[in-house]
Specification:
Layout: E1 2-6, E2 13-20, E3 23-32, E4 37-45, H1 54-69, E5 75-81, H2 94-109, E6 113-114, E7 130-136, H3 144-157
Parallel strand pairs: 4-5
Antiparallel strand pairs: 1-2, 2-3, 3-4, 5-7, 6-7
The protein binds coenzyme A (COA).
Coenzyme A (COA) binds next to strand 4, helix 1 and helix 2.
Length: 164
């Protein structure tokens, strides 16, 4: 198994791939949100290669890579579709519920923390459709300012994830 960074001429967008026998089995896109925060834009394991451990191995390598790449990085943030179904207007199918639970557990097993402030600091403008998570990258804990960078980004790019 080989973990590589795909060369790009962009400072703040980085693509990585995990290859087996020269073929991509998992890839991810990350981008920088601030001096201290990176965001996972996307991760995907090739359909028939899922549940073989490639996604977990890729994420572990990715976290190490960001730490090496950027000594100032404190947090590696991302969002997952909400598991708090009561906050969603629509009723989810059971399959979808299970998939969301499994996805959340996948990240938690790898050490991701869940932001517990979904009701705060935007009481009248809550993040509802997704849950915010992150990996801690350094001994300096991510702070409220880091969370706000992420919330501001999501608010700009996905305003419909927030309640009115
Ligand atoms: C999330 C993803 C990258 C995990 O990759 P992977 O190579 O299958 O990961 P691993 O083999 O290391 O771990 C598999 C575990 O991930 C969990 N999991 C995470 N997302 C899942 C999903 N959408 N469906 C099923 N299981 C999922 C399961 O618990 C699974 O364990 P299991 O095989 O015992 O059921 C992969 O499921 C995927 O590409 N999903 C589609 C794209 C996606 O949803 N990306 C994440 C956006 S938030």
């Amino acid at each position: 198994m080989k973990f590589i960074q795909v060369p790009l001429n962009e400072d703040d967008l980085v693509i990585h791939a995990t290859l087996v026998g020269g073929k991509v089995v998992c890839h991810s896109k990350i981008h920088r949100l601030s001096e201290t925060v990176w965001r996972l834009f996307w991760i995907e394991t090739t359909g028939d290669k899922r549940s073989h451990g490639y996604g977990s191995a890729h994420l572990k390598n990715l976290i190490d890579q960001i730490k090496n790449l950027d000594s100032k990085a404190r947090g590696f943030a991302f969002e997952i579709p909400s598991r708090h179904f009561d906050r969603l207007e629509e009723k989810l199918e059971t399959d979808e519920q299970l998939e969301r639970q499994r996805r959340g557990l996948f990240y938690e097993r790898l050490g991701a923390k869940l932001w517990d402030g979904h009701n705060n600091p935007y009481p009248n403008n809550q993040l509802q459709k997704v849950e915010l998570m992150w990996f801690q990258l350094s001994d300096t804990l991510i702070g409220q300012s880091d969370i706000e960078v992420m919330l501001a980004y999501l608010k700009q790019t996905h305003p419909y994830w927030f309640s009115n």
